Every structure is written in structure tokens, then in C-alpha cells.
């Protein structure tokens, strides 16, 4: 499932063909994805300019000249396919097609249909049911050391689960939380409230670094995608913890091995030797 860095990479990849551009026509090829599409979605998109393409957590938000915002969630398998002509034939899972100005085309393709789109007035977007209770952006100013120290104080859940809690911080998923905890030298099993203030503070710059590096590496893969017709959605990153069960820990001076456990139904990869 795409996490925050992948969604941010998709957004950046879409900017050249979508931001500031007119949607000449939109085709909506089925009634729903995970949920029904909003009423008259094709008409509400057609003829509008996308004034700004932004991101909140794992949602892409397109602010339209009509005063509405289109919300896009990629779900498990959603991809954005960019072509600048000649355009490939529309395929079975191409559910929404944006015919943009300059003959560019953006197709939302989603085999498993866990993705979602919705539309609402831009002024109301912060209160949208999918966005209203989400915590601060990990790369934004509201997410700082004091915030996290206070937010984790007294928490009895494991730090792994606390960092996955979208009310505490937006957009962090399983893969990047494992990376963050390995770099921090903090056991995923440790109760969040038992971390020292120094440990809790240290998580903030590490979270920013891990996400920032992933966004940068997504950006470099974007350059390759642009040479051909672009497909945005998934990128191959290398992880230090995630998916490395049984492999040596790469932390300096540690000779432990990465192990896999299950927490709250999800895989956690960590090194019991250097993560305490
Ligand atoms: Zn280690």
C-alpha cells in the first residue's frame, strides 16, 4: 500500500500535467471504487482548472476553479498513468480518465478498487470525514519535539502502534515506522509512555529524515518514469528493517539480525540487539 512518500511522489509527478491546467473532459467509467463516486463527478470536473494540487496525509487534493476540491486516495493498488499522446487504449481497470489541456491524459487505474474519490467545497475540506481527525503532517511545522513528547506521554500502547495512529501523526505506515524505530534504537515493543523524553524528542528528526529520503528517492525514480509515459504509484526503495527478516542488522557496531514479529496484526521488523 502506498505510504506518505509514495503519495507525495505521485503528487509531484502529476504537477506538470495537472496543476494550473484545465480538465477538458473527465470520464468516469464505473459507479464506484471503494465507495460510490460523488454525484455528477464527470460534469463537476469537466471545464475546471486545477488551481492547486496538494497532499494531506495519504490523500491527494486537487483544488478546482469551481471552489470544489477533488480528493483522491490510491487505496492498495491505485496508479496514475500519464500519457502525452499518442495515448494507449483504455484498459479494463482504467476507472477515471482526465483529459487535460495540452492533450495530456491522466488515468486512474485500480485493479483492486480499494481507492476512493470524493468532492466537496474547498473551504470544507479540512472537516471532511476522512481528514477531520488526522494528526499533524510529519513534515509540517505543527509536528515538533514538544508535540510528540506530550502526545506520547502516559501512552500504554507499544510505540510501534502509537506511531501508526493517524490521530497522533499523519500518513506514517508500517514500513516507515519500522525504519524509524531501527534508526532510533527503540524497541517496537516498548510502551510509548515509557520512552524517555530524549527518545521521544529524537523520533521527530528521524521521522522527517526517513520520509524525506524516501521522497527524494521517489523523485529520482520519477525522472526515469518521465522518459517514457509515466506510471505513478509504486517505487522500489531499499529498507534497513522492513522485509529483511533473518538478515544482518546494518546499524554501526551491531551484529544482531533483523527479526519479524506480529503486532496488532501487522508485521514488525526489528533488531532485538540494538533496539531497546
Ligand atoms: Zn541491530
Write the layout of secondary structure elements.
Layout: H1 4-18, E1 23-28, H2 41-45, E2 50-56, E3 59-64, E4 68-73, E5 78-83, E6 94-100, E7 105-110, E8 116-121, H3 145-152, H4 159-164, H5 174-184, H6 197-227, E9 230-232, E10 258-263, E11 266-271
Antiparallel strand pairs: 1-6, 2-3, 3-4, 4-8, 5-7, 5-9, 6-7, 10-11
Bound molecules: zinc ion.
Explain how this protein is built.
The chain is an alpha+beta fold. It is 28% helix and 24% strand. It has 6 helices and 11 strands. The strands form 3 sheets. It has a 5-stranded antiparallel beta sheet with strand order 1-6-7-5-9. A hairpin with a 3-residue loop joins strand 3 (59-64) and strand 4 (68-73). The mean pLDDT is 92. Residues 249, 251, 254, 256, 271, 273-274 line the site of zinc ion.
Instruction: Flag low-confidence runs.
Output: none
Strand content: 15-25%
Percent helix among the residues?
25-40%
Report the span from N to C terminus.
28 Å
Overall spatial form: elongated
Instruction: Give the SSE order as H and E letters.
Output: HEHEEEEEEEHHHHEEE
Strand order of the largest sheet: 1-6-7-5-9
Chemical compounds bound to the protein = zinc ion
Over all CA atoms, what is the radius of gyration?
Answer: 20 Å
Structural class designation: alpha+beta
Largest sheet: 5 strands, antiparallel
Q: Averaged pLDDT, please?
A: 92
Number of helices: 6
Total E-strand runs: 11
